[in-house]
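2024-03-11 09:14:02 INFO queue: dequeued item Inorganic pyrophosphatase, len=177
2024-03-11 09:14:02 INFO validating residues
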Amino acid sequence: MTNLWTDLETGPDPPEEIYAVVECLKGERNKYEYDKDVPGVVLDRVLHSNVHYPSDYGFIPRSYYDDEDPFDVLVLVEDATFPGCIIEARPVALMRMDDDGEQDDKVIAVPTEDPRFDHVQDLEDITGQQLDEIDEFFSTYKNLEEGKEVETLGWEDKGAAMDAIEHAQDLYEEHFG
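2024-03-11 09:14:37 INFO prediction written
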């Protein structure tokens, strides 16, 4: 069986075009995680707070980030896909975040095959309302989980997102070669 984290390429042309493996769906409270040992998507937990994912959320294959997990990616979509779906995406921004003292940044990307997002090329192309909703979700989604502290640390542009993807690729290569 194919392991979507280790067997799939990072993307067709990383860091400009990446693959995003969807774990969590837009509009849902279920927190799915890709379990590389299964391999497959499993239900990790249901979010304790009454919030839902602002868009499809998952990870970038063959990446490893400073929090010792595959690098997180939020893909802006109109309609939710499904857990395990692979989306070819274009990074457009980076949200800096601290999760319990660990750097846990998020790439914000758009599907390359959805013309509704052709105009979204960089951070300034995402509406302020959408950025506020994403920030609000990640600021509050762990509030009711005992002992969990999350802090969002602001937004950076497409260049920072691509640099972070290259960093995550380098860490993956360093740890898993």
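2024-03-11 09:14:37 INFO annotate: The CA atoms of residues 58 and 156 lie 19 Å apart.
2024-03-11 09:14:38 INFO item closed
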